[in-house]
Amino acid sequence: MATPPVASVPPANPGLEGGPPAPPAPPGTDMTGICFRDQLWLNTYPLDRNLVFDYFALSPFYDWTCNNEQLRMRSIHPLDLSHLSKMAGIEYMLYEVMEPHLFVIRKQKRDGPEKVTPMLTYYVLDGSIYQAPQLCNVFAARVGRALYYISKAFTTAASKLEKIGYVDAENDSAALESKVAKETIDFKEVKRVDHILASLQRKLPPAPPPPPFPEGYVPPHTADAEKGPEGPQSGEPQAPSVDPIIDQGPAKRMKI
User: Fold this and answer.
1) pTM (2 decimals)?
2) Cα–Cα distance between 123 and 131 in angstroms, integer?
3) Which of 11, 69, 70, 98 is paired with 3 by a 20 to 30 Å CA distance?
4) What are the DSSP calls for 114-161, one per residue?
5) Per-residue pLDDT averaged across 237-244, rounded?
6) In this predicted model, what pLDDT tens digit does every residue of 64-77 receive, in sequence order?
7) Residue 20: Cβ within 10 Å count
């Protein structure tokens, strides 16, 4: 009976076989969803500016093809700027330090002694390593969150403006119509609106008195009383007096 093929397993120590170990794949660009923490290393070594890069090299954010790794293989401190400035390629730089809680490491591409291009930023916060999000992603997340709350606020406001509900009631007087849509009244909302209107009315000043009649103007009810029996009977309701300012035209202006 044929046996299934067995996958080749690399030796435990490739250096003894004569071949160097294969370098791990370079890290991805967006690794903001993961973090790294090695509690055993933190319990063994202090986390300071001299050893923070060795701790960072254990994380999946580390690129083994960087210039810092070449310095480590030559027993040179990986953050020695005098050697890094003479090299070209990907490198890591300790950008900001607040011992022992915060260390900011920047990944950049060096094209010359004074020409570097920032690529990504990582930070070590209390022993946990994170990748800092890019500025465009931060703006997109903040704008998306703001739009969500604005849309939610408009939805809530629209639901308050809609009719609260309808109830059906039987109409005994009409033979053809059996039910009539009737709007439900929310007495709490009515009391709240009345309270607001009353408070506004108390804040407003009292209404000014009506303007006096122009000189020589006779109110209509006085003229009707002088007519005597030809006018309408006293028992009939009289029409309200007419405002002379509004219904009789504008007042005469003073000529200068």
Assistant:
1) 0.50
2) 6
3) 11
4) S-EEEEEEEEEETTEEEEPPPHHHHHHHHHHHHHHHHHHHHHHHHHHH
5) 53
6) 999 999 999 999 99
7) 8
